[in-house]
Design brief:
The complex is a heterodimer.
Chain A (H helix, E strand, L loop, with lengths): L1 H11 L2 H32 L9 E7 L8 H13 L3 E7 L11 E5 L5 E8 L3 H5 L3 E4 L8 E3 L15 E6 H7 L9 E4 L9 E8 L18 E4 L1 E3 L5 E7 L4 H16 L10 E4 H8 L1 H35 L1 H9 L4 H38 L8 H25 L11
Parallel strand pairs in A: 4-10, 6-11, 7-9
Antiparallel strand pairs in A: 1-12, 1-13, 2-12, 3-4, 3-8, 5-9, 7-10, 8-9
Helix pairs in contact in A: 2-8, 2-10, 2-11, 3-6, 8-11, 10-11
Chain B lengths: L1 H14 L1 H28 L11 E5 L20 E2 H10 L4 E13 L8 E8 L3 H5 L3 E4 L4 H6 L3 E5 H8 L8 E4 L2 E9 L23 E4 H6 L9 E2 L3 H4 L8 E9 L3 H20 L11 E4 H8 L4 H31 L1 H9 L4 H35 L13 H27 L3 H7 L1
Parallel strand pairs in B: 4-9, 6-8
Antiparallel strand pairs in B: 1-11, 1-12, 2-11, 3-4, 3-7, 3-11, 5-8, 6-9, 7-8, 10-11
The chains are: A alpha+beta, B alpha+beta.
C-alpha cells in the first residue's frame, strides 16, 4: 500500500528524483573506482615485509672507482661489519627489499604450470640477516652457496644435472603448486635464455618477503620473492644488509656508516658516499609517491562526497518545502511525526536504490572502457557493494535534515491559506 | 535590459549567500581539478621541438633472435640500436644530419676551489648532434667528425654546468674533469631542455632530465664510460661479447633529419635493405620488414610516455566535474522553482518566456564566471601541488595562456549549460495556476 503511494508520487514529479538518481549514480561510479584505486595503492604499503624491520640497516650507493669490487673486498666488508659492536649479522647482497638499485627479475614456473614473475634476492646468509621466518624446510647449507659475480659466470661450478636450491615465500608456494606442498619440488626459470635448463629445488619456505619492484606489489603479488643460494663475488653493484641490536639504534647506525667509510671509502668514487640507513627510513622514502597519490584520491573522494551530499540536501529540502501542505494534511489525518520521517527516508532509499544500481553498472562499464585503453586492472565486483553502501549511508544522512524538518510540520498547516 | 537582469541576478544570489557560495565552490572545484589534469596531460604530450619535429626520425631495427622472450619487464631491447648497427647507419650518411647517442652520468669536479663536486647527467654522441637538433651555442661550437674518429677528448658543456665548475660560462679552451678523464671544452650551449627528452632512452626520466654535457661517443666506448640508459644484451656472451661494441647488446639511440617525403621513403627502404643484408649475413633472424622509421611525435606515442596514472586522474577529474555540473543543475532547479511565484508575477505583467529564460540564464552565467575564477585559482593550486609531488613530470606542470583562457571558457560554458535545464523548466511555470495557488 505505502509503496504504491511512494511510486505514484515519484512518477508524478519525476524531474527531482531523476536528478538525485543521476547524482547518486555518478558519485557511486566514481566512488567504486576510487575505492579500488586506493586499495591498489595501499596494497604495497600494507604488505608485510617479512624482515626484522627494526633491526635492519641497508647499505647501498657504493660506487667503486675504476675497477669493480673484488670478491675478497666483499668478504672482508662482511667480516668487518660483523665485528662492529651492536651488529648481529651482515651479508653482502644483490637485491634487497626497499633497495631498487639492484634488480633481478625471474619468471618461475611451478608444478601446476602457472607462470609467475618474481624478484630474486642473492647473498649468503640472508635468511638470518634479514630475520626471515622459515615456516617449512631449511636455510641454505654453507656448501650450497656459489659465487655470483663478474668473474665466475653464473652457472660455473654447477653440476648440470643438479638442481639449484631455492627458498620461496608461502604465497608463492600456494600459487605455484596445487596443494601448496612445494618443499622438495622442482621449478624452472623461463627467463633462462642460455637454456642450460637448470631447475630450482625448493628447500625452504618463508612466511613473507616483500619484493623490491614495489610497483608490482599489488593484487597479492607483494610476496613474489625468492632467495637464491649465491654468494656475492666480484661486483660493481655492492649492497649490504646489516642486522643490528635494536636497542642501540642510532649509535650502531653511526658505527656501521663509519665502518663502511673506513673499509671502502678509499676505493669509492670521488665525491661518492654510501647510503646507510634503517629499513624504516627507506620505506618512508619509497612510499612517498604512493602517499601523494593516496592524498589525491582522498581529496577526490571527499570532494565528490561533499558535493553529492549538498546536492541531495538541496533538492530534498526544496521538495519538502513544496509539499509542506500535503505533509500538514497527512499529519491532520493522524500520521505521527515518525511516519513522516520514515516516509522521506524510505522515499530516499528508493531513489538512491535506483541510483546505485545504475552507478554500479556505470562503474564497471567505465572501468572496462579505461581498461581497454590504459592497461588497468579489472575492477573486481566486490568493490561495487562497498561503494553502494557508502552512497546509501551518505544519502540517508543527507536527507535526515530535510526529513526532520518535514516531520516537524504542525498539522495546523493543512488548514491555513485555503 | 541586460543591466537589469544583472541587478536581479545579483540580488537573487545575495539573498541566499550560503547556497550561492556552495554552487560557486562546486563548479570551482570541478573546473580546478579538471584543468589541473588537462594541463598536465597537455604539457606531457607537447611537441618538444616544434620547429624541427616534422623532419626528425628515428630508425627501428629488429636484431633480436627469433626465440627471444621479453620477460615481464616490458622493456623492448630493439627500441635501441647496437653499436655495429648505429655505426653502419652513421657511415651510410643517408640523411641530412644524423647522430647516434646514449646518456651517461659522470662525477664532475670543479676547477675553481670552493665549488662542490657533483654528478652531471649528459650525452655521449656524434658530431652531427648539434646541427641535427639545432642546439644553440653560447660560446664555441661542437666537435668535428674527425674528433669522433680520433676519439678526441673534447666536451661541450651546458651554461649551467660551466658555471658550476668554473664559476663562469666563457670557458672554451679550458680543461674540465669528468669522471676520471680530462676534456678540452670546445663549446658552451645555452639552456636547451626539450621536454620530454625525446632522444633519450625510454627507461629514463624523460620529463625531468636535462643534459649538462656532451662528449664524443667514441670516447665513451673507448674508455667504457658508464651508460645511464637501458643496456639489453641477448645471445651467448662468449660468441658475441656483451661489451659496448658487441653486436648483441642494444644501448644506443639514433636520430636522423629527413626533409622531404622522398627522403623518408628512401630511408625506410634503406633500413629494410640493411636488415635483409644483415639477415643474409646471418646476424638478424627476424623478417627485414620489421625495420621501420618513426617520426618524432609517432615515436613519443610509441613509447607511451604518459603514465596510466595521469590518464586515470584526468578521467576522475572529468567525472568529478560532471558530478559538480549535475549538482549545479539540481541546486539551480531548486532555487529557480522556489521563485515560481515571482516568475509568475513577471509573466502575468507581460514578460515573455524568453525574457524569463534570459534572466535566469544571466544568473547561472554569473555563477559560472565566479566559479571559473575560483577554478582558475584552484587549478593553479593543483599544479603547484603537482610540481611539489615526487614525480618525473613535476617540473613541467605549468599553465600557458591558452590553457588559462580555456579554463575560463570551460567554467562559463559548464555553468551556462548547467543553468539551461533549470531555466527552461522555470520559464514553463504556468502563471495562472501558480498565482491562484498562492
Amino acid at each position: 500500500m505505502s509503496m504504491r503511494i511512494h511510486l505514484s508520487v515519484l512518477r508524478r514529479h519525476s524531474l527531482m528524483p531523476a536528478l538525485v538518481v543521476l547524482q547518486v549514480a555518478l558519485a557511486c561510479a566514481i566512488l567504486c573506482n576510487v575505492l579500488f584505486l586506493v586499495q591498489q595503492k595501499l596494497a604495497p604499503l600494507l604488505a608485510p615485509s617479512g624482515v626484522a624491520t627494526d633491526e635492519l640497516i641497508l647499505v647501498d650507493r657504493m660506487d667503486s672507482q675504476a675497477q669493480p669490487w673484488t670478491a675478497a673486498e666483499v668478504r672482508r666488508g662482511e667480516q668487518v661489519l660483523r665485528e662492529v659492536p651492536g651488529v648481529r649479522d651482515a651479508s653482502a647482497a644483490f637485491g634487497l627489499p626497499m633497495v631498487p638499485g639492484a634488480l633481478m627479475d625471474m619468471a618461475l614456473q611451478g608444478g601446476n604450470g602457472v607462470k609467475i614473475g618474481v624478484n630474486g634476492y642473492l647473498g649468503a646468509g640472508l635468511v638470518k640477516t634479514l630475520g626471515l621466518q622459515l615456516v617449512a624446510g631449511r636455510d641454505f647449507l654453507p656448501d650450497e652457496y656459489h659465487d655470483f659475480g663478474l668473474d665466475g659466470d653464473g652457472s660455473h661450478g654447477w653440476d648440470p644435472v643438479a638442481q639449484q636450491p631455492i627458498i620461496i615465500t608461502r604465497a608463492l608456494a600456494d600459487q605455484l603448486f596445487d596443494d601448496g606442498h612445494a618443499l622438495g619440488k622442482l621449478m624452472s626459470d623461463l627467463h633462462d635464455n642460455q637454456g642450460n635448463g637448470h631447475g630450482y629445488r625448493v628447500v625452504g619456505i618463508v612466511r613473507h618477503l616483500l619484493r623490491n619492484q614495489l610497483g608490482l606489489a599489488t593484487d597479492g603479488r607483494a610476496d613474489n620473492t625468492v632467495l637464491l643460494a649465491r654468494r656475492i663475488g666480484s661486483t660493481s653493484i655492492l649492497n649490504f644488509a646489516v642486522r643490528v641490536d635494536p636497542s642501540m639504534h642510532d649509535a650502531v647506525l653511526k658505527r656501521v656508516a663509519a665502518a663502511i667509510q673506513r673499509e671502502f671509502g678509499a676505493r669509492m668514487k670521488e665525491g661518492a658516499t654510501a647510503r646507510v640507513s634503517f629499513y624504516s627510513e627507506r620505506r618512508a622514502q619509497a612510499f612517498q609517491r604512493q602517499r601523494a597519490a593516496l592524498w589525491l584520491f582522498a581529496g577526490v573522494t571527499l570532494a565528490v562526497v561533499i558535493v553529492t551530499v549538498i546536492g541531495i540536501m538541496g533538492l530534498t529540502g526544496f521538495w519538502v518545502q513544496k509539499r509542506t501542505r500535503q505533509i500538514g494534511i497527512r499529519r491532520a489525518l493522524g500520521a505521527r511525526k515518525v511516519d513522516i520521517l520514515r516516509y522521506f527516508l524510505v522515499e530516499n532509499l528508493l531513489i538512491v536504490g535506483v541510483g546505485i544500481a545504475i552507478g554500479m553498472l556505470l562503474a564497471s562499464l567505465g572501468n572496462r572502457l579505461l581498461m581497454r585503453h590504459y592497461e588497468l586492472v579489472h575492477l573486481p565486483w566486490t568493490y561495487l557493494p562497498w561503494g553502494a553502501l557508502v552512497m546509501v549511508i551518505l544519502s540517508q544522512l543527507a536527507v535526515l535534515g530535510p526529513a526532520l524538518r518535514a516531520s516537524a510540520v504542525p498539522p495546523v498547516v493543512a488548514t491555513r491559506s485555503v | 535590459m541586460f543591466a537589469y537582469y544583472m541587478d536581479l541576478a545579483l540580488r537573487s544570489l545575495k539573498r541566499n549567500p550560503v547556497l550561492t557560495a556552495l554552487m560557486v565552490l562546486a563548479i570551482g572545484l570541478g573546473i580546478g581539478a579538471s584543468m589541473t589534469m588537462i594541463t598536465v596531460l597537455h604539457v606531457m604530450t607537447n611537441d618538444p621541438l616544434p620547429e624541427r619535429s616534422t623532419h626528425l626520425y628515428t630508425p627501428h631495427l629488429d636484431p633480436l633472435p627469433l626465440d627471444y622472450s621479453h620477460g615481464g619487464s616490458g622493456i623492448d631491447p630493439s627500441d635501441n640500436l647496437t653499436w655495429p648497427d648505429a655505426m653502419s647507419l652513421l657511415r651510410a650518411h643517408r640523411g641530412v644530419h644524423q647522430a647516434a647517442m646514449a646518456g651517461g652520468t659522470l662525477l664532475a669536479l670543479p676547477v675553481q676551489s670552493g665549488l662542490q663536486a657533483l654528478y652531471a647527467a649528459g650525452r655521449y654522441t656524434t658530431a652531427d648532434f648539434f646541427a641535427l637538433f639545432g642546439v644553440p651555442f653560447e660560446y664555441g661550437a661542437g666537435w668535428s667528425a674527425a674528433d669522433d674518429t680520433a676519439g678526441a677528448r673534447v666536451v661541450v658543456l651546458s651554461d649551467e654546468l660551466a658555471r658550476k665548475l668554473f664559476g663562469r660560462a666563457d670557458v672554451v679552451g679550458r680543461t674540465a674533469r669528468l669522471g676520471e678523464l680530462d676534456y678540452r671544452v670546445v663549446g658552451v650551449v645555452t639552456r636547451w631542455d626539450p621536454a620530454p627528452q625525446f632522444y633519450a632512452d625510454s627507461t629514463g626520466s624523460q620529463f625531468s632530465d636535462i643534459d649538462t654535457f656532451f662528449l664524443p661517443l667514441s670516447v665513451a666506448v673507448n674508455e667504457d664510460l658508464p651508460v645511464s640508459g637501458n643496456e639489453s644484451g641477448w645471445g651467448d656472451d662468449e660468441k658475441t661479447g656483451s661489451s659496448k661494441r658487441g653486436a648483441a647488446m642494444s644501448w644506443l639511440q639514433f636520430w636522423v633529419q629527413l626533409d622531404t617525403p622522398a627522403q623518408v621513403a628512401d630511408y625506410r627502404q634503406y633500413l629494410i635493405n640493411y636488415s635483409a643484408q644483415q639477415k643474409a649475413l646471418g646476424r638478424f633472424q627476424r623478417p627485414p620488414t620489421n625495420a621501420t622509421l618513426f617520426g618524432l611525435m609517432d615515436w613519443l606515442a610509441h613509447q607511451n610516455l604518459v603514465p596510466n596514472d595521469v590518464h586515470l586522474q584526468l578521467w576522475l577529474a572529468l567525472g568529478f566535474l560532471f558530478v559538480c555540473m549535475v549538482n549545479i543543475v539540481a541546486l539551480l532547479l531548486a532555487k529557480f522553482l522556489r521563485r515560481s511565484g515571482e516568475i509568475s508575477v513577471r509573466r502575468a505583467l507581460g514578460a515573455r518566456r524568453r525574457d524569463i529564460f534570459v534572466q535566469l540564464g544571466v544568473e547561472s552565467a554569473l555563477i559560472g564566471v565566479a566559479g571559473g575564477t575560483l577554478g582558475l585559482a584552484i587549478a593553479q593550486l593543483g599544479l603547484w601541488s603537482v610540481r611539489h609531488r615526487p614525480g618525473d613530470y613535476a617540473r613541467i606542470a605549468q599553465m600557458d595562456p591558452s590553457m588559462l583562457a580555456g579554463t575560463f571558457v570551460l567554467a562559463v560554458l559548464a555553468s551556462v549549460l548547467a543553468g539551461l535545464l533549470p531555466a527552461w523548466r522555470a520559464c514553463r511555470v504556468a502563471p495562472a495556476l501558480q498565482l491562484k495557488a498562492s
